[in-house]
Fold:
Amino acid sequence: MAQRTVAIFVDAGFFIRNFTNIADPDMSAEPQQLAKAMWHYWIKHVDRKNDEELYLIYFYDCPPLSHKAHHPITNQLIDFSKSNITQYKNALHEALLHQPYVACRMGQFQTVRLTALVMFFHENLLGNSLLLAKAS
Structure:
């Protein structure tokens, strides 16, 4: 029988949400431990008994938001780059790169749409609610 080469494609947003619910529900594992557990889970899908050989694991994700923005209601500055989630995801991406056969494909977060949404929120929702509060 001829050997088959297999590639695994992973949607990070979907996979991490579901995998951590099972493997690390309290989010206490270090990023290196989680990356290793994820790799072991993926590698189990290669059927070596039927002559499958792993080519590559493509991990598709987006880097966490690292911009600064103002809270739409309190107007306080929020630095997303210093959040625990951002630091954890950056460490997880780095740890995955050290796993064999893993290639991280990183997209980009569209901040233009987010800014437009915040502006819409300010102009339409907050503006009207403030006007209604003054009128009553």
